[in-house]
Specification:
The structure holds two protein chains of two kinds. Chain A is mostly helical. Chain A has ten helices and no strands. The N and C termini of chain A lie far apart (39 Å). By secondary structure, chain B is an all-alpha fold. Chain B has eight helices and no strands. In chain B, helix 3 packs across helix 4 and helix 5 packs parallel to helix 8. Chain B is elongated, with a radius of gyration of 35 Å. Classes of the chains: A mainly alpha, B mainly alpha. Chains A and B meet through helix 2, helix 3, helix 7 and helix 10 of A and helix 2, helix 4 and helix 5 of B.
Amino acid sequence: MDKAESKIMAEVAKGNLSSFREIVERYQNPLLNYIYKYTGDRTAAEDIAQEVFLRVFKTAEEYRPLSSFKTWLFKIATNLCLNELRDNKIYRSTIDIFELNEAGFIGLFEKSPSAVRELENRELSSTLKKALKNLPENQRVALLLHKYSGFSYSEISQMMGCSVSAIESLIHRARQALRRQLTPYL
Amino acid sequence: MKECEEIRERLSAFIDNELPPRESRLIENHLHECPECAQEESSLRRVIDLLDEIPAESPSRSFTPATIHRASSWKRCAYVKEHILMPSLTILRSVLSAVPWPLEAADRRRTPFNGYLRSFDDFPPESLSSVYISLIQGGST
């Protein structure tokens, strides 16, 4: 965590709302995207992201700037996602924009080549989200933290409480599993 | 082909630049010589590239204001609880415990009124009702 960020967090710990806003604005995009890819549910992702920030505000006093703030934040997010999934609060539907649009498929097809491309992109995106959801939880967490949030194996190992070689193995297994599921697109 | 198996197990770490330079060079050299492992590496890279096809999401416009609003409400509640409610309850409790009750303690334990109160022990902890009942019971024993 850089010095400026640790100062901001010290202010948040005092209840300073404008410092809290700075934290929210800085991290809302990467956090939302991580949670969205984890859950596959846009609405749930926003609810969980809000809950994560609220937890940061409530427990800011407990934060020690020895470790990276981003690591701390994403650890909270991962724990909340796991809890939500275990409590079945997140709907198991993989939203499927493709399925929602299936009825309008012919209409789109007749419209323009760009509409067809759009549909293909949505289908691919939907398939990818399903494939991610099918991964075992620990593989999914490790892969997403690396791929979309830019954490190193070592940082992920700290967050997940396991060795670096275990993280290497989780990420490798996740990619192999995705390759099996995504063969038609490779 | 034990070497190939070992190399393939480390391909993800190699792609992610997570290996020490020496090991990374060894794998790179192997990939130049072994088409099967090179094929394995390129298929893993395609999987990684494919994951970029999931579009990035942006938070809704109300996300930041709603989050700040929730934090602000929590802050107000925490302040009221810490600086107003808890001190008031402490004072109330000490006042109530100092009040001389008309009945003897033993009699009070036997009265239907107190027995009735004791049956009210299933309020959620820290709820106002629970605090009230504990104050009444605390003051009467």
